[in-house]
Amino acid sequence: MQHNGTFDPLGDSKDGHILARAIISTIQEPLIVLDGDLRVIVASRSFHKKFGLTYKNTHDNMFYEINNGQWNIPALRTLLEKIIPEHTTVEEYEVEHNFPILGSRTMLVNAREIRDENDKKKILLSIFDVTEERVLKLEKEKLLTQKDLLLKEMRHRIANSLQLIASILLLKAELVDSIESRSHLEDAHERIMAIATVQQQLDPVERGEDIQVGDYLTALCKSLEKSMIGGRKPITLHVKAEG
Protein backbone atom coordinates (compact mmCIF):
# COMPACT_ATOMS: atom_id res chain seq x y z
CA MET A 1 0.00 0.00 0.00
CA GLN A 2 1.35 3.43 -0.96
CA HIS A 3 0.54 6.79 0.65
CA ASN A 4 1.90 10.07 -0.79
CA GLY A 5 4.93 8.41 -2.30
CA THR A 6 5.80 6.31 0.78
CA PHE A 7 5.20 2.64 1.46
CA ASP A 8 3.17 1.20 4.28
CA PRO A 9 4.77 -2.27 4.13
CA LEU A 10 2.23 -3.94 6.39
CA GLY A 11 -0.77 -1.75 5.74
CA ASP A 12 -2.90 -4.52 4.31
CA SER A 13 -3.28 -7.87 6.05
CA LYS A 14 -3.43 -9.66 2.70
CA ASP A 15 -1.36 -7.64 0.26
CA GLY A 16 1.40 -6.15 2.41
CA HIS A 17 4.79 -5.32 0.95
CA ILE A 18 6.62 -8.51 0.02
CA LEU A 19 10.09 -7.38 1.12
CA ALA A 20 8.96 -6.28 4.58
CA ARG A 21 7.11 -9.53 5.05
CA ALA A 22 10.12 -11.51 3.90
CA ILE A 23 12.37 -9.73 6.43
CA ILE A 24 9.98 -10.40 9.32
CA SER A 25 9.44 -13.96 8.19
CA THR A 26 13.16 -14.78 8.17
CA ILE A 27 14.27 -12.85 11.27
CA GLN A 28 15.78 -15.04 13.97
CA GLU A 29 13.70 -13.61 16.80
CA PRO A 30 10.09 -14.72 17.43
CA LEU A 31 8.38 -11.61 16.07
CA ILE A 32 4.69 -10.91 15.37
CA VAL A 33 2.88 -7.90 13.94
CA LEU A 34 -0.74 -7.44 15.05
CA ASP A 35 -3.36 -5.01 13.86
CA GLY A 36 -5.39 -2.87 16.23
CA ASP A 37 -7.82 -5.74 16.87
CA LEU A 38 -4.97 -8.11 17.81
CA ARG A 39 -5.24 -9.99 14.51
CA VAL A 40 -1.97 -11.47 13.20
CA ILE A 41 -0.70 -9.64 10.13
CA VAL A 42 2.58 -11.49 9.89
CA ALA A 43 4.72 -13.71 12.12
CA SER A 44 8.35 -14.72 11.79
CA ARG A 45 9.27 -18.29 10.97
CA SER A 46 11.18 -18.47 14.25
CA PHE A 47 7.90 -17.85 16.09
CA HIS A 48 6.25 -20.69 14.14
CA LYS A 49 9.17 -23.03 14.74
CA LYS A 50 9.63 -22.20 18.41
CA PHE A 51 6.02 -22.79 19.34
CA GLY A 52 5.07 -25.48 16.81
CA LEU A 53 2.82 -23.25 14.69
CA THR A 54 2.20 -22.77 10.97
CA TYR A 55 1.33 -19.90 8.65
CA LYS A 56 -2.16 -21.32 8.29
CA ASN A 57 -3.04 -21.33 11.98
CA THR A 58 -1.53 -17.91 12.69
CA HIS A 59 -1.96 -15.60 9.68
CA ASP A 60 -5.07 -13.41 9.80
CA ASN A 61 -6.16 -15.08 13.05
CA MET A 62 -6.88 -13.28 16.30
CA PHE A 63 -3.78 -13.65 18.46
CA TYR A 64 -5.67 -15.21 21.35
CA GLU A 65 -7.35 -17.70 18.97
CA ILE A 66 -4.08 -19.04 17.54
CA ASN A 67 -3.97 -22.85 17.44
CA ASN A 68 -7.47 -23.38 18.81
CA GLY A 69 -7.13 -20.82 21.57
CA GLN A 70 -3.84 -22.07 23.03
CA TRP A 71 -2.60 -18.47 23.15
CA ASN A 72 -5.65 -17.20 25.00
CA ILE A 73 -3.57 -16.25 28.02
CA PRO A 74 -5.62 -13.84 30.15
CA ALA A 75 -2.70 -11.83 31.54
CA LEU A 76 -1.08 -11.47 28.09
CA ARG A 77 -4.37 -10.64 26.37
CA THR A 78 -5.13 -7.91 28.92
CA LEU A 79 -1.65 -6.54 28.43
CA LEU A 80 -1.92 -6.37 24.64
CA GLU A 81 -5.40 -4.85 24.72
CA LYS A 82 -4.02 -1.85 26.66
CA ILE A 83 -1.09 -1.05 24.36
CA ILE A 84 -2.91 0.97 21.69
CA PRO A 85 -5.59 2.64 23.85
CA GLU A 86 -3.14 3.60 26.58
CA HIS A 87 -0.02 4.01 24.35
CA THR A 88 1.96 1.70 26.62
CA THR A 89 5.20 -0.12 25.97
CA VAL A 90 5.89 -3.59 27.36
CA GLU A 91 9.44 -4.67 28.12
CA GLU A 92 10.38 -8.18 29.27
CA TYR A 93 7.02 -8.94 30.83
CA GLU A 94 7.22 -12.49 32.17
CA VAL A 95 4.43 -14.88 31.29
CA GLU A 96 4.11 -18.50 32.37
CA HIS A 97 1.71 -20.74 30.48
CA ASN A 98 1.07 -24.44 30.17
CA PHE A 99 0.58 -25.40 26.51
CA PRO A 100 -1.16 -28.74 25.75
CA ILE A 101 1.75 -29.97 23.59
CA LEU A 102 4.75 -27.87 24.59
CA GLY A 103 4.07 -28.09 28.31
CA SER A 104 4.85 -25.35 30.80
CA ARG A 105 6.79 -22.46 29.25
CA THR A 106 8.25 -19.25 30.65
CA MET A 107 8.25 -16.36 28.16
CA LEU A 108 9.45 -12.76 28.10
CA VAL A 109 7.15 -10.47 26.13
CA ASN A 110 8.08 -7.16 24.51
CA ALA A 111 5.44 -5.10 22.74
CA ARG A 112 4.96 -1.57 21.47
CA GLU A 113 2.60 0.42 19.31
CA ILE A 114 3.65 1.38 15.78
CA ARG A 115 1.80 3.71 13.39
CA ASP A 116 1.96 4.68 9.75
CA GLU A 117 1.65 8.20 8.39
CA ASN A 118 -2.14 7.86 8.26
CA ASP A 119 -2.22 7.00 11.97
CA LYS A 120 -3.03 3.36 11.30
CA LYS A 121 -2.12 1.48 14.46
CA LYS A 122 -0.38 -1.86 14.84
CA ILE A 123 1.45 -3.75 17.56
CA LEU A 124 4.98 -5.09 17.21
CA LEU A 125 5.31 -8.09 19.49
CA SER A 126 8.25 -10.31 20.37
CA ILE A 127 8.04 -13.39 22.54
CA PHE A 128 11.20 -15.07 23.85
CA ASP A 129 10.97 -18.56 25.31
CA VAL A 130 13.37 -18.54 28.29
CA THR A 131 12.24 -21.84 29.80
CA GLU A 132 15.54 -23.63 29.20
CA GLU A 133 17.54 -20.65 30.43
CA ARG A 134 15.54 -20.59 33.67
CA VAL A 135 16.02 -24.34 34.14
CA LEU A 136 19.77 -23.97 33.62
CA LYS A 137 19.84 -21.07 36.07
CA LEU A 138 18.08 -23.15 38.71
CA GLU A 139 20.45 -26.05 38.10
CA LYS A 140 23.41 -23.69 38.43
CA GLU A 141 22.06 -22.34 41.72
CA LYS A 142 21.57 -25.89 43.00
CA LEU A 143 25.14 -26.80 42.04
CA LEU A 144 26.47 -23.68 43.79
CA THR A 145 24.48 -24.55 46.89
CA GLN A 146 25.81 -28.11 46.83
CA LYS A 147 29.33 -26.80 46.36
CA ASP A 148 28.93 -24.47 49.34
CA LEU A 149 27.64 -27.33 51.49
CA LEU A 150 30.56 -29.54 50.48
CA LEU A 151 33.08 -26.78 51.16
CA LYS A 152 31.47 -26.07 54.51
CA GLU A 153 31.64 -29.74 55.44
CA MET A 154 35.27 -29.94 54.29
CA ARG A 155 36.21 -26.85 56.32
CA HIS A 156 34.47 -28.33 59.34
CA ARG A 157 36.42 -31.57 58.99
CA ILE A 158 39.72 -29.70 58.55
CA ALA A 159 39.02 -27.60 61.64
CA ASN A 160 38.24 -30.74 63.66
CA SER A 161 41.41 -32.42 62.43
CA LEU A 162 43.55 -29.42 63.34
CA GLN A 163 41.94 -29.24 66.77
CA LEU A 164 42.63 -32.94 67.29
CA ILE A 165 46.29 -32.58 66.26
CA ALA A 166 46.69 -29.55 68.53
CA SER A 167 45.16 -31.43 71.47
CA ILE A 168 47.51 -34.41 70.93
CA LEU A 169 50.54 -32.09 70.80
CA LEU A 170 49.49 -30.37 74.01
CA LEU A 171 48.92 -33.73 75.71
CA LYS A 172 52.36 -34.93 74.63
CA ALA A 173 53.92 -31.71 75.91
CA GLU A 174 52.49 -32.39 79.36
CA LEU A 175 53.88 -35.94 79.39
CA VAL A 176 57.50 -35.31 78.32
CA ASP A 177 60.20 -34.53 80.89
CA SER A 178 62.53 -32.59 78.58
CA ILE A 179 61.96 -28.85 78.80
CA GLU A 180 63.27 -28.43 75.28
CA SER A 181 60.91 -31.09 73.88
CA ARG A 182 58.00 -29.59 75.80
CA SER A 183 58.84 -26.17 74.34
CA HIS A 184 58.91 -27.57 70.79
CA LEU A 185 55.59 -29.37 71.28
CA GLU A 186 53.95 -26.30 72.76
CA ASP A 187 55.29 -24.21 69.89
CA ALA A 188 53.91 -26.73 67.41
CA HIS A 189 50.57 -26.62 69.26
CA GLU A 190 50.45 -22.85 68.96
CA ARG A 191 51.26 -22.98 65.27
CA ILE A 192 48.55 -25.57 64.60
CA MET A 193 46.02 -23.44 66.49
CA ALA A 194 47.14 -20.37 64.50
CA ILE A 195 46.70 -22.29 61.24
CA ALA A 196 43.22 -23.31 62.35
CA THR A 197 42.43 -19.67 63.05
CA VAL A 198 43.74 -18.61 59.64
CA GLN A 199 41.66 -21.32 57.99
CA GLN A 200 38.59 -20.02 59.80
CA GLN A 201 39.36 -16.39 58.89
CA LEU A 202 39.74 -17.20 55.19
CA ASP A 203 36.03 -17.93 54.98
CA PRO A 204 34.38 -15.59 57.48
CA VAL A 205 30.87 -15.33 56.00
CA GLU A 206 28.40 -17.20 53.88
CA ARG A 207 28.17 -16.56 50.12
CA GLY A 208 26.46 -13.29 49.31
CA GLU A 209 27.02 -11.65 52.72
CA ASP A 210 29.06 -8.51 53.37
CA ILE A 211 32.55 -8.56 54.90
CA GLN A 212 33.91 -5.92 57.27
CA VAL A 213 37.26 -5.71 55.53
CA GLY A 214 39.16 -3.83 58.23
CA ASP A 215 38.27 -6.25 61.02
CA TYR A 216 38.71 -9.23 58.72
CA LEU A 217 42.23 -8.26 57.59
CA THR A 218 43.30 -7.38 61.13
CA ALA A 219 42.21 -10.76 62.51
CA LEU A 220 43.71 -12.59 59.53
CA CYS A 221 47.10 -10.90 59.85
CA LYS A 222 47.21 -11.58 63.59
CA SER A 223 46.68 -15.25 62.84
CA LEU A 224 49.35 -15.21 60.14
CA GLU A 225 51.74 -13.44 62.49
CA LYS A 226 51.32 -16.16 65.11
CA SER A 227 51.79 -18.98 62.63
CA MET A 228 54.67 -17.51 60.59
CA ILE A 229 56.51 -14.99 62.75
CA GLY A 230 58.10 -15.59 66.11
CA GLY A 231 61.28 -16.06 68.04
CA ARG A 232 64.09 -13.93 66.67
CA LYS A 233 62.40 -12.88 63.43
CA PRO A 234 62.25 -9.04 63.47
CA ILE A 235 59.03 -8.92 61.44
CA THR A 236 55.70 -7.34 62.31
CA LEU A 237 52.48 -6.89 60.35
CA HIS A 238 50.58 -3.60 60.35
CA VAL A 239 47.09 -3.37 58.89
CA LYS A 240 45.74 -0.13 57.49
CA ALA A 241 42.23 -0.67 56.20
CA GLU A 242 38.88 1.04 56.34
CA GLY A 243 35.74 -0.75 57.47
From the structure above, extract its key features:
243 residues; alpha+beta; five-stranded antiparallel beta sheet; two-stranded antiparallel sheet
Can you walk me through this structure?
It is a single chain. With 243 residues, the protein is an alpha+beta fold. The protein is built from seven helices and seven strands. Helix 5 (131-175) packs antiparallel against helix 6 and helix 6 (179-201) runs antiparallel to helix 7.
Give the SSE map.
Blueprint: E1 2-3, E2 6-7, H1 18-26, E3 31-35, E4 40-43, H2 45-50, H3 66-69, H4 74-86, E5 90-99, E6 103-115, E7 121-129, H5 131-175, H6 179-201, H7 213-228
Antiparallel strand pairs: 1-2, 3-4, 3-7, 5-6, 6-7
Helix pairs in contact: 5-6, 6-7
Concise summary:
The protein has 243 residues and is of the alpha+beta class. 48% of the residues lie in helices and 19% in strands.
